[in-house]
Design a protein that fits this description.
Multidrug efflux transporter AcrB transmembrane fold, seven-stranded antiparallel beta sheet, two-stranded parallel sheet, 11 helices, elongated
């Protein structure tokens, strides 16, 4: 053997390897395609689940469809507005506020204690919930705009912009406001969470590989894989292509589903990354560490882990695909998204893009600045207990 301490490799794979046959070509068109696949995700519109997540045969779904199609005002789209402290306010000030709210475009009516305001004028008795209690005043804005649509969001913003009576604080409710608050609660800490996940992943992979290139590569390729899967989710379940897989496309995705999917899929993809890269590194450390050895290490690592990764991915994909049989849209979306993410990661990423990238980078795959090399010698993760590569024999 020309390698010292070479791991038991068994028979070498026959024929061209992913890195020796037409290097660079298999992966070159894949990334643009995956970017295009992920493009729909940039058009994601967060929404709040309603009766349409249920099967069309469900009574609640059928009644909801009738209300949306045949009635001018849908109670789900109403916007309750509460003036928590209306003590000391003249009824006329509240009425002027209600009249101003009713003048907002596409508002059908505003129910106030004094009556219903339409188009800025008092038109009759209240049509919806309203009243005064405990020093607070309740108003209800009626609208027929589709929930969670761009027009609904614009209208809600304009309602917020209406000057309040006496400059008092007001609180907004309803599904549209609940959706806005939910999205804000989820996204407010999202950059911090994503940053922490990326930082921890980069550190752990550096301690495993001793390289600063491979962790960055892993992060970029994982993002490509996940964005493609999420783009498919938007294309199918939000935009309604492929018949939304038997569900009702509402033009939105439930805000917390992409985040939940990302956490699960990202963790699994990093698991597969560790499987593959750790095995490649074993062969690399046992070699004289030339560019040719890098290619052979990649080929051997892939040959020894490809089946394991594929089998593990298939098992997980089958488990998640079982959720597609559920008649609730949320479960079907979750199962479809994870199945796509796992299969794409274990096939296109691990078996195509990773080998192509590592072939293109050659010895630079294992590069790190001198200070980090010293850190890795002390803290590096190694099954053998040696964080630095052994010297070549001969």
């Amino acid at each position: 053997s020309r390698w010292r301490n070479r791991p038991a490799a068994g028979p070498r794979p026959d024929g061209p390897t992913p890195t020796s046959a037409a290097p660079g070509r298999p992966g070159t068109p894949a990334s643009p395609r995956r970017t295009v696949l992920g493009a729909p995700f940039f058009g994601v519109k967060p929404g709040f689940p309603d009766d349409r997540v249920l099967p069309k045969s469900a009574s609640a779904h059928q009644v909801g469809d009738m209300l949306r199609a045949d009635f001018a005002i849908d109670s789900d789209s109403e916007v309750p507005i509460v003036i928590p402290d209306s003590t000391g306010l003249d009824r006329a000030e509240v009425d002027r506020y209600a009249a101003a709210l009713s003048a907002v475009p596409e508002v059908n009516s505003v129910s106030a204690p004094s009556g219903t305001f339409i188009g800025g004028r008092l038109a009759g008795p209240p049509l919806a919930a309203t009243g005064e209690a405990g020093g607070a005043t309740l108003l209800t804005v009626g609208t027929s705009l589709p929930l969670f649509s761009e027009s609904s969001e614009t209208q809600l913003t304009r309602l917020h912009e209406v000057p309040t009576p006496g400059g008092r604080d007001v609180e907004f409710g309803g599904l549209a406001q609940t959706n806005r608050d939910s999205v804000a609660a989820i996204t407010s800490r999202l950059p911090l969470v994503l940053g922490l996940m990326a930082a921890i992943m980069l550190v752990v992979l550096f301690l495993l590989t001793g390289s600063v290139v491979l962790p960055i590569k892993a992060l970029i390729l994982n993002m490509l894989s996940l964005s493609a899967a999420f783009g498919a989710m938007v294309w199918v379940f939000q935009d309604g292509h492929l018949g939304a897989l038997g569900t009702t496309a509402t033009g939105t995705l439930v805000a917390n589903m992409p985040v939940l999917l990302f956490c699960v899929a990202f963790g699994l993809s990093m698991d597969y990354e560790v499987f593959l890269v750790s095995r490649i590194r074993e062969f690399w450390l046992a070699s004289p560490q030339t560019s040719a050895d890098n290619d052979e290490s990649v080929a051997l690592g892939l040959a020894h882990t490809g089946r394991v990764i594929t089998a593990a991915a298939v098992i997980m994909a089958i488990s998640f695909a079982a959720l597609i049989a559920a008649q609730v849209a949320l479960m079907r979306l979750f199962g479809t998204g994870l199945t796509l993410a796992i299969l794409m990661d274990a096939t296109l990423v691990r078996l195509v893009l990773v080998p192509v990238f590592m072939h293109a980078m050659g010895k630079w795959n294992w590069w790190a600045p001198a200070p980090l090399v010293r850190v890795h010698r002390v803290l590096g993760i190694s099954e053998s207990g040696a964080a630095h590569p052994p010297k070549p024999s001969g």
